[in-house]
Each structure stands twice: as structure tokens, then as C-alpha cells.
């Protein structure tokens, strides 16, 4: 790693354009003795062609004002107008164009300095060094601005990652983009699995593989138990011993970062020669620190979400009652591993009046919605066991919510299957209508419904429906059929057709409906089916 000030004054490749052989030889000799590499041209066209042909363009151009094919001023303008050489310092030299007017024109048309002949050797070398220093500082500032933009973009990418896979891709790819080289990384997933990620270079697709359980512990030795970030150099032999399959094939610079004591660190690695100064070290460490913060937040979210889902599932029945003459099946599917938990619920309860089936949805997606769902479901069971009719259960739940959950709304559909299964009573508080599938192939939604729970409005009496043996009931929450880009009536029509063609067995029917409608949903799904008689 080198000092920036020393780099700014280091020798460079200099282009000398002069049609006078002796003058060109003298200037080139002085520059070479000063440590510079010199490219020589006899006119403007040759000089511009040499610049274009160089894999690495020269860093300074020394141009005579009077050239045989074009003026040095015009050569300068062409250099300054090309994006790849716009920042190249141009120094004019002349033995005849030496008036203040000539100086002014040269500087106005893009030159960075103007020297009159005869030129003093020390003045020439000092002018070249000063021009280099200024250009390099400017380029470094521009590069730093670009890299800070890349760091900011990568930080945003790792912070908004919604899963560990997208986090590893953003972090490893971001390291390659920031440091302009291949990169590797080792992280411990929220599930406790060490993962080795690597990318061939900026813009390439990262790939990840499982890693040894103790790999991070071995890598973390330089950091100890401290928090923060540290960058260390690891010799090739040591790195290959730790990660034999890694694509970095030399000494590596490894940055380790930890934001909470006791946690395994994040580990980012790049070729050691990609870290060329303190600026590179600081940017690399900032990226690692951002990755550590993001991964810690991802771990915390994963822990909290797992606990919330576990709590939510305790509110739902683990099994349904066994009732002679009534076949029941249910399914519950959370939206995704990264969505907030919701308030969908279902219930089947034996009462003195028959079997009470229920399905509902508390408004909102949060732990609060899940806890309200738990309270509502337990109250539903209590009121159902007391033998109240479905609409009377809704009225009692309405009173409970006004007292304990004001401002919360709930949709709920209750169906009482009377003993023998020849008649049902339906009370619907603003929920998706239940689907009745007759044994003769007829299918219809039962659209009778009342107001949502939580509005403080009385509920209409339950609606009776006669049912024949073999009749099936399907109760769902809106997560199964509701799509933002589609009319709900169209979705319900498709659902009715699929259910009517579906298997007679309730378990098989649940599976078929979930397969047809339950994939890639952004809402929880609850599904309850029953076959009567």
C-alpha cells in the first residue's frame, strides 16, 4: 500500500509532439532522465493516433504550437473534447508563439500550461510534475465520488434485501463493484449455516455454496471478540487451506466486521493488490460494516418473525373434531417467509345445536392482528359452546369487540351444520361468501351477508339452506382469490368452476384448490372444506 502524495508525483508516460527533431530529442531526453516514459510524434495526426493506439493513454501531452499539419491549439482541443482524454493535462511549448496573446489563446482553448523556448530543464520537469499532481488529485476525487456512489447503492441493496440469498448476492456483488475486482465472502445465515459466496468481477452473477461450520471462527481470529471492522492480509497458502475451492488465487485482503458481541462476523475478501491505499481500506471497511449491520437486522427479523408465526399458529386449531356423517379438512398457509403475519383463522366446533364451522380475517397484517385473532377465536368457541345461533354469536362478538378492541374490524362467516347434515344455517359478517357444492354438480356462492364485525351494527338472522347427502362446503379467506390486478368477481367465478370440478374428498379438494390458486400469494390463506352426510 502506497502513500497518495507519492503517487501524485510519480513519473508518468508523456506524449511529446514536435516536428523539430532536435527540440523533440532534447525534451524527450530531459523527461526520460526525470524518470518518465516518453512517446514521440512529429505532427498532430501522428500524436492523436498514438494516443488512440495506447492501451493506457499517456498522462501528460507536451505539444508544440506550430505543427506541419495542424496547430497545437487544435490538437489540444481534440484531446480535451474526447471523453477518454478530457482530463489529460496539455502543456504547450513554442519558440515563436510567445506573446501574451498566444498564451491566452492556448489556455483559452484548453491547455493547462504554456512554456516559451528556450525552456529551462528544471522548469519543464517541475511543470510536468505539477500538472500530473493536479490531474491525479482530480481523477482521484472523481473516482472517489463514483465509488462513494457505488458504496451508497450497495449499502441500500444490502439493507433492502428481504432474504439471506438476496443479501449475499448484494453484498458480494457490491464488493466486486466497489473495489473493481473479483470478490468472495463468508456469512453465517440466520438459520446458522455458513455460506461461501463468490463473484468473478463487477456485474457478474454471484454464486453461493455451503461452507464448513468452523470456517468463520477461524477467519474471525484477528477480530477476536471485539466489535467494529478490521482489515488483514492473508497469504495465499493460508487462504487456500481455509477455502480450497475459492477463485481468489493469490494473497487476499480480508475485512472482518461485527456489530454485536458474540455474533459471528461478516467476511469480505478481494485480491490483496486491489487495496492500494488508505482510501481503499476505508471504503472496504465501510462496506463490510454496512453488511454486518444489514445481516444483524436480517437475523433479528428472522428470529422475531419465526416467534410471531409460532405464536400465530398456537391460536389456530391443531386438529378438527371427528363428527359422524361429516368429513372435514383444513389448510393454512402463511403468505411467505418475509411477509408480516396476518389475522386469518378457522374453527370447527361441536355444539348442542350441531357443528359450527367458522372462518375469518382480522384487518391488518401484524402481530397485533394475530393477537386480536386469538382473542376472537377463543370468544367464538365460548359463545358457540353455549349453543347460540350463528347470528347471535356474531352479536356477542360485536359487543366484545366494542369493549376490548374498538376500531378493529373483522370479517367472519359462520355455518352451523345441524345434526344429520340435512340443513345448514349461514351467518356472514362481510366475509367472502361460502361455496355450496351440491351432489348433483350444482355450485353456488351463498351471498347472504351482514355487516363487518367491529362496526357496532346488529347482525341479521341466520339464513337456513336445505342440503342433500354428499353436499360439500368450501370456506376461504380472501388471500386465496384476491388479486390486485383482477376483479374479485372474476376470480370467484374461476374458483367456483375449479371447485365444482374438484375431487369429492375434502382433503383432496383442499390440495387441488391450493395448487390452482394458492401459489405466490402475498396474503395468508385459510381454507376449510366439509362434506355432509
UniProtKB/TrEMBL annotation:
<feature type="domain" description="Response regulatory">
    <location>
        <begin position="13"/>
        <end position="132"/>
    </location>
</feature>
<protein>
    <submittedName>
        <fullName>SpoIIE family protein phosphatase</fullName>
    </submittedName>
</protein>
<dbReference type="GO" id="GO:0000160">
    <property type="term" value="P:phosphorelay signal transduction system"/>
</dbReference>
<dbReference type="InterPro" id="IPR001932">
    <property type="entry name" value="PPM-type_phosphatase-like_dom"/>
</dbReference>
<keyword id="KW-0378">Hydrolase</keyword>
<dbReference type="InterPro" id="IPR011006">
    <property type="entry name" value="CheY-like_superfamily"/>
</dbReference>
<dbReference type="InterPro" id="IPR001789">
    <property type="entry name" value="Sig_transdc_resp-reg_receiver"/>
</dbReference>
<dbReference type="InterPro" id="IPR052016">
    <property type="entry name" value="Bact_Sigma-Reg"/>
</dbReference>
<dbReference type="Pfam" id="PF00072">
    <property type="entry name" value="Response_reg"/>
</dbReference>
<feature type="modified residue" description="4-aspartylphosphate">
    <location>
        <position position="64"/>
    </location>
</feature>
<dbReference type="GO" id="GO:0016791">
    <property type="term" value="F:phosphatase activity"/>
</dbReference>
<dbReference type="InterPro" id="IPR036457">
    <property type="entry name" value="PPM-type-like_dom_sf"/>
</dbReference>
<dbReference type="Pfam" id="PF07228">
    <property type="entry name" value="SpoIIE"/>
</dbReference>
<keyword id="KW-0597">Phosphoprotein</keyword>
Amino acid at each position: 500500500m502506497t502513500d497518495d502524495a507519492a503517487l501524485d508525483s510519480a513519473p508518468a508516460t508523456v506524449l511529446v509532439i514536435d516536428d523539430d527533431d532536435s527540440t523533440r530529442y532534447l525534451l524527450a531526453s530531459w523527461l526520460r532522465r526525470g524518470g518518465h516514459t516518453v512517446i514521440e510524434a512529429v505532427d498532430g495526426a501522428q500524436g492523436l493516433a498514438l494516443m488512440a493506439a495506447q492501451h493506457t493513454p499517456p498522462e501528460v501531452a507536451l505539444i508544440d504550437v506550430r505543427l506541419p499539419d495542424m496547430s497545437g491549439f487544435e490538437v489540444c482541443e481534440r484531446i480535451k473534447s474526447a471523453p477518454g482524454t478530457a482530463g489529460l493535462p496539455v502543456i504547450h511549448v513554442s519558440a515563436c508563439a510567445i506573446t501574451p496573446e498566444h498564451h491566452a489563446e492556448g489556455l483559452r482553448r484548453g491547455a493547462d500550461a504554456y512554456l516559451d523556448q528556450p525552456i529551462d530543464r528544471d522548469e519543464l520537469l517541475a511543470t510536468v510534475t505539477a500538472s500530473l499532481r493536479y490531474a491525479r488529485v482530480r481523477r482521484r476525487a472523481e473516482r472517489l465520488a463514483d465509488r462513494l456512489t457505488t458504496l451508497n447503492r450497495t449499502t441500500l441493496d444490502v439493507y433492502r434485501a428481504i432474504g439471506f440469498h438476496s443479501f449475499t448476492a448484494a453484498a458480494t456483488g457490491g464488493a466486486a463493484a466497489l473495489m473493481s475486482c473479483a470478490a468472495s465472502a463468508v456469512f453465517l445465515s440466520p438459520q446458522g449455516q455458513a455460506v461461501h459466496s463468490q463473484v468473478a468481477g463487477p456485474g457478474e452473477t454471484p454464486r453461493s455454496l455451503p461452507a464448513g461450520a468452523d470456517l468463520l471462527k477461524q477467519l474471525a481470529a484477528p477480530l477476536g471478540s471485539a466489535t467494529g471492522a478490521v482489515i488483514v492480509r492473508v497469504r495465499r497458502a493460508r487462504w487456500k487451506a481455509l477455502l480450497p475451492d475459492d477463485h481468489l488465487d493469490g494473497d487476499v485482503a480480508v475485512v472482518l466486521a461485527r456489530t454485536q458481541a458474540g455474533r459471528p462476523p461478516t467476511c469480505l475478501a478481494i485480491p490483496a493488490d486491489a487495496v492500494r491505499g488508505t482510501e481503499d481500506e476505508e471504503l472496504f471497511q465501510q462496506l463490510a460494516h454496512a453488511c454486518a449491520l444489514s445481516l444483524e437486522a436480517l437475523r433479528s427479523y428472522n428470529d422475531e418473525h419465526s416467534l410471531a408465526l409460532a405464536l400465530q399458529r398456537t391460536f389456530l386449531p391443531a386438529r378438527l373434531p371427528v363428527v359422524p356423517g361429516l368429513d372435514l379438512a383444513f389448510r393454512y398457509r402463511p403468505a411467505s417467509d418475509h411477509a408480516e403475519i396476518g389475522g386469518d383463522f378457522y374453527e370447527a366446533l361441536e355444539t348442542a345445536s350441531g357443528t359450527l364451522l367458522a372462518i375469518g380475517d382480522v384487518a391488518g397484517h401484524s402481530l397485533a392482528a394475530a393477537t386480536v385473532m386469538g382473542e376472537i377465536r377463543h370468544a367464538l368457541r365460548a359463545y358457540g359452546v353455549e349453543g347460540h345461533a350463528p347470528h347471535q354469536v356474531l352479536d356477542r362478538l360485536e359487543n366484545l369487540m366494542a369493549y376490548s378492541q374498538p376500531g378493529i374490524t373483522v370479517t367472519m362467516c359462520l355455518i352451523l351444520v345441524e345434526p344429520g347434515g340435512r340443513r345448514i344455517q349461514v351467518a356472514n359478517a362481510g366475509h367472502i361468501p361460502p361455496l355450496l357444492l351440491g351432489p348433483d354438480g350444482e355450485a353456488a356462492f351463498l351471498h347472504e351477508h351482514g355487516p363487518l364485525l367491529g362496526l357496532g351494527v346488529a347482525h341479521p338472522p341466520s339464513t337456513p339452506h336445505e342440503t342433500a347427502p354428499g353436499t360439500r362446503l368450501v370456506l376461504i379467506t380472501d388471500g386465496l382469490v384476491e388479486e390486485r390486478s383482477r376483479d374479485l368477481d372474476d376470480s370467484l367465478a374461476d374458483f367456483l368452476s375449479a371447485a365444482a370440478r374438484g375431487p369429492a374428498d375434502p382433503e383432496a379438494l383442499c390440495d387441488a384448490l391450493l395448487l390452482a390458486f394458492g401459489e405466490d400469494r402475498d396474503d395468508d390463506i385459510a381454507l376449510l372444506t366439509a362434506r355432509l352426510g
